[in-house]
Amino acid sequence: MEPPVQPHETDCCNSGCNPCILDVYETQLKKYSEYLRKIDNSEGRGVEIINSINPTVYTVFKLIDRKRVSNTTFLLKFEYADAKDKTPNCLNYKSGQYFLLKAKDCNGEFTRAYTPIPVQNDGGLVFTILIRLYDWGRMSKLLKRLQIGHKTSWRGPYGDFSITYDYKHLFFIAQGTGIAPIFSVIDEIVRDEDCECFIKLFYCCRDCEDILLREELYKLGGYWNFSYEVFLGTTTNLVKKYNETVHETKLNFLNIKNHIDGKTGKLQAVICGSDNFSNNIKSLVEKCGVESTHIYVF
Q: Which part of the chain is the FAD-binding FR-type domain (predicted)?
């Protein structure tokens, strides 16, 4: 473990980043101090692990691929392109964690959070994000102009979600691009041969085109312990796949209750979407008897 690099006070952009780079440094400093207390003098002399991304220092990654997945949503792939004293040999982060992207426009510097997702053939110092670009979005305007080879500044990873097999049932509820961290977590769980949990995903989308990572979810449906259902706001041009459950209606309390009944105490609910969506769904899950300590909201 490397000591954290102390940021300069001017590194704080005063735009309300969560987490702030100054707060992150204090947290990382405590972790490093604890690491030094625990490590034995005879240990830690093997190959040094140098992560290519750091929670207290921005690292340069260049855009190497852009793939459209819907009218407004893209997969953007980035590769390490920094010049540091020590060359990194890994890109380490936990499933569900996110990175912060820093940008600058006429109003100053600002950041946005994005979750890297597992993509086949992504290796080395490369990560991929799923992003929806809005016409009015501050970061969207800049990313729309981003060309292959252009460089960007990232720091991370952040996020305190940890996969646990203390529950027999894992119940995920996602909305729109909120599928990114949830897909990342589910992908890791189903590939763990020691996992004996039953995994259920309710995915809420505006329409059929808005079912993001649809092919990837369909493939995960081949695992014995994972199933998913899609709930649509509108059903224009609806095309269902074989054995795919797509409801031509929005998710409601009865859908949630029917799945949770008989599982309280043995179920963990994980939610990701807009603040309004997450708060509403959390209330419905609690109404079904699930304690708040068994609910995690990204």
A: 56-164
Q: Are residues 114 and 56 in the same domain?
A: yes
Whether residues 150 and 178 share a domain: the answer is no
Tell me if residue 284 falls in helix, strand or coil: helix
114 known member of a binding site: yes
Q: Where are the beta strands (DSSP E) in 31-125?
A: 59-68, 73-80, 98-105, 108-114, 116-117
Model pLDDT, residue 18: 64
Domain CATH number, residue 132: 2.40.30.10
How does pLDDT run across 141-183, given as a tens digit for each residue? 999 999 999 999 999 999 988 888 889 999 999 999 999 999 9
Give 249-283 as a 3 state SS string: CCCCHHHHHHHHCCCCCCEEEEEECCHHHHHHHHH
Which secondary structure element, helix H or strand E, spans residue 138, and what is its range? helix 138-144
**98 among the known binding-site residues?**
no
Cα–Cα distance, 213 to 115 (Å, whole number): 14
Task: Flag whether 70 is marked binding.
Answer: no
Specify whether 16 is located in the same domain as 148. yes
The answer to the question of whether 93 is labelled as a binding residue is no
Q: Is the pLDDT of residue 263 over 50?
A: yes
Dist CA 124 CA 80 (whole Å): 9
For residue 30, the enclosing domain spans: 9-37+47-158
Average pLDDT, the chain: 86
DSSP per-residue string spanning 163-224: ---S-SEEEEEEEGGGHHHHHHHHHHHHT-TT---EEEEEEEESSGGG-TTHHHHHHHTTST
The bridge status of strand 267-272 relative to strand 295-297 is: parallel
Same domain, 100 and 227: no
Q: How confident is the model at residue 37 (pLDDT cuts 50, 70, 90)?
A: very low
The answer to whether 130 is a known ligand-binding residue is yes
Residue type, 291: E
Strand-pairing partners, residue 110, are: 103
Same domain, 15 and 133: yes
